[in-house]
Amino acid sequence: MPLSQESLDAVLGLRxxxxxxxxxxxxxxxxxxxxxxxPAGAVxxxxxxxxxxxxxxxxxxxxxxxxxxxxxxxxxxxxxxxLGRATxxxxxxxxxxxxxxxxxxxxxxxxxxxxxxxxxxRKVAGILAEAVWEGDRLVGVVxxxxxxxxxxxxxxxxxxxxxxxxxxxxxxxHRTDLADRLLKRVDHWAARIGERSLFNAWRGRLTTLGQRxxxxxxxxxxxxxxxxxxxxxxxxxxxxxxxxxADHRIIAGDVTLQS
Length: 259
Ligand code: BTN
Description:
Layout: H1 5-12, E1 17-20, H2 26-36, E2 43-46, E3 67-74, H3 85-98, E4 109-112, E5 116-119, E6 122-134, E7 137-148, H4 165-169, H5 175-190, H6 196-205, E8 212-217, E9 224-232, E10 238-242, E11 247-250, E12 253-257
Parallel strand pairs: 1-2
Antiparallel strand pairs: 2-3, 3-7, 4-5, 5-6, 6-7, 8-9, 8-12, 9-10, 10-11
The protein binds biotin (BTN).
């Protein structure tokens, strides 16, 4: 069933939402709506995204009918040092929504630090949480989620790195229902953004821990740390132990698993 205003009206009930058959970026629209006063839980959903954004200025586009593309407005009351937890909210919520899909056993679902959701080791969803400030006042956070439902990556550069739910399950997914289940998990975890239970749920699903990783630090293409992903902390930082035994606390980095 296609995503439409009517299908979303039927399942989202009283939740404020804006649906677009095509949009440039749901995060950009949600940012503007947040600044106009959108309440917590409001969501922008699109069927097609043409200039979507990922981390590190990557693009995240999706043809019509193939994905869940949404940006949820959060108004978290946490210290700025804990805003990284918005990414945890998104990642854990997607993992839990996926766990409701028939033919997707829990063992197939994992999280790669910091913001990727994996199905059988390939990326099925990405999270882009962006804090919106007015001066030094936090207005809120836009939690962008892109979830591949039936994108076919065969023959593309992403063929071995990315996947879609239907590719793995072979079962047709009702995107409106899955979007609704995902939003309910976001509501649940957004209300607990400062709690240890969110951190535990995120940490418990991270498949990165114990693996050898390379880290490219944001804004720096040349310096890469290599070592063992030891642990994560409650603010969402990754602790990497390099080969000399020194620990590095990574707050914003692009993490690649070493084969
Ligand atoms: C990443 O893995 O780098 C994050 C990707 C986030 C993509 C989503 S799609 C919906 C929302 N709107 C955007 O422009 N980006 C996010």
